[in-house]
Amino acid sequence: MTSPLVTTDWLQDNLDNEHLVLIDASMANVIGKEPIVYDRPMLIPGSYRIDLEGTLCDTGAFQVHAFPTEEQFTAEVRRLGITPESLVVLYDNQGIYSAPRAWWILRAMGLKQVFVLDGGLPQWLAEGRDIVSAPVADAAVHGGVVGKLDRTLVRDSAYVFQHLEDERVTVIDARSQARFLAQAPEPRPGVRGGHIPHSLNLPFTEVLEGYRFKPASRLASTFALLAPSLQPGNGHQLVFSCGSGITACIILLAAELAGYTQLSLYDGSWADWGSNESLPVA
């Protein structure tokens, strides 16, 4: 499995795979798109559920949606029964929204076999597949994975500020063009309008088609149009940002699909940068 995505057909065929750990990573709050609203709980059979705003968020940190601590992560994946042999598949109820955030958390903490269901629950429902109304409880046998954060995959404002003039490092912002250009207000109080100097804008909706990601060839063209220097394999580092570190992971995953490799997340994103008066704004 070389792609970070799996299809609904693959998942259907592997629901009984003993190594599969299926996780609903949906979030209650959806920003940047019209949310899909459900009249009752719906999950794919065999799903666990995780809380990206609770047990997998460092709520003691200043920033919004901070990456979980290694201790938080370890406790959660052990609860889910995840082992080094597990095939972890994540999805959300918006198609592609918060599942990429969970995917990057698991990857950054050391897990390798982690995938996102392309199209998520909406695609699954559109194909008439079975659903259930409640998640699976804790795993019967807890896993033994211990999280260790790879800090080259998660950046902070100090790193971004230090590399503002570095032509080998580019920040790509997943917010809407209106927010990027300070033509629309920020949804969080006390956050300035605008963007990180020299950053590029790629609204996350532009890498999606319906509920799913666009094909890899079209994603590659999308990134190439942002700047001539953005070519896979040329040693260029791409740092992804958004409002608070959620939708940045959508375009980060899109970049991996397009063939880019030196990728990282600015976890605090604009909620962090825009609220810090000492940092420059364009």
TrEMBL record:
SUPFAM superfamilies: Rhodanese/Cell cycle control phosphatase (SSF52821). Keywords: Repeat, Transferase. It comes from Marinobacter guineae. Transmembrane segments: none annotated. SMART domains: RHOD. It comes from the Bacteria. The keyword Repeat applies. CDD domains: TST_Repeat_1, TST_Repeat_2. The keyword Nucleotidyltransferase does not apply. This is Sulfurtransferase. One of its GO terms (molecular function) is thiosulfate-cyanide sulfurtransferase activity. Signal peptide: none annotated. Pfam families: Rhodanese. Residues 16-133, 165-282 form the Rhodanese domain.
